[in-house]
Design brief:
Length: 213
């Protein structure tokens, strides 16, 4: 039986990357969307990557990028996985040349089912709360009860997760992984080591019998 994987997204500083790895995070996310308060340049992203120990995955996060923007990151940084968080067509995601996760802004079960069919080439679906004006990082949770348990993709649960609610989310949704950003911060882009540690402990504390194999 495995434990639920954890990605800590919106890392902006090398010391935060080291802290995330130190508490046991499986992956970190680097935000390449300029309007985000967690945006990093390629130069800063390189510093973050250098600070990571081995075997911690690096995820490059994009929102409706131009193809050349993704290409520049893929060619210059050791990213393991791409995450597309906007309205990107499947063709753009595939042509990026790296395994990818497709984010879905969820209102209903049909949003998830439809995305699973449209983005059949995705390695996983990341489920986040729908917001009319923002693409993510809102700290808002959606109704976890709408997540189907028979969707063909592995599920990465995001949106409003905190150390206080993540154990309940894992028990209910039984995701492959969870993704947290604002829930372990003291300010946008400023990660708190203690909250990251608490988050990891809460995820690890859900017994194997309480989630899918």
């Amino acid at each position: 039986m495995r434990r639920t994987r954890v990605k800590i997204c919106g890392i902006t500083r090398p010391e935060h990357a080291r802290a995330a790895a130190g508490v046991g995070a499986d992956a970190i996310g680097l935000m390449f969307y300029k309007p985000s308060p967690r945006y990093v340049t390629r130069e800063r992203a390189r510093e973050v990557c250098v600070a990571l120990p081995p075997l911690v995955s690096v995820v490059g996060v994009f929102v409706n990028p131009e193809p050349y923007e993704v290409e520049a990151v893929v060619e210059s940084l050791p990213v393991d996985l791409l995450q597309f968080h906007g309205d990107e067509p499947p063709e753009l995601c595939v042509d990026a040349g790296k395994p990818y996760v497709k984010a879905v802004r969820v209102r209903t079960r049909e949003d998830i089912v439809g995305a699973s069919a449209r983005y059949s080439s995705a390695r996983a679906l990341l489920l986040d709360a729908h917001h009319d004006a923002l693409w993510g990082g809102t700290g808002i949770r959606f109704d976890w009860n709408v997540v189907p348990h028979d969707v063909r993709h592995p599920i990465v649960l995001a949106g409003g997760l905190t150390p206080e609610n993540v154990a309940g989310a894992v028990r209910l949704v039984r995701p492959f992984a969870v993704d947290v950003s604002g829930g372990v911060e003291t300010a946008p882009g400023v990660k708190d080591t203690r909250r990251m540690e608490l988050f990891m402990k809460e995820v690890a504390g859900v017994g194997p019998g309480e989630r899918q194999a």
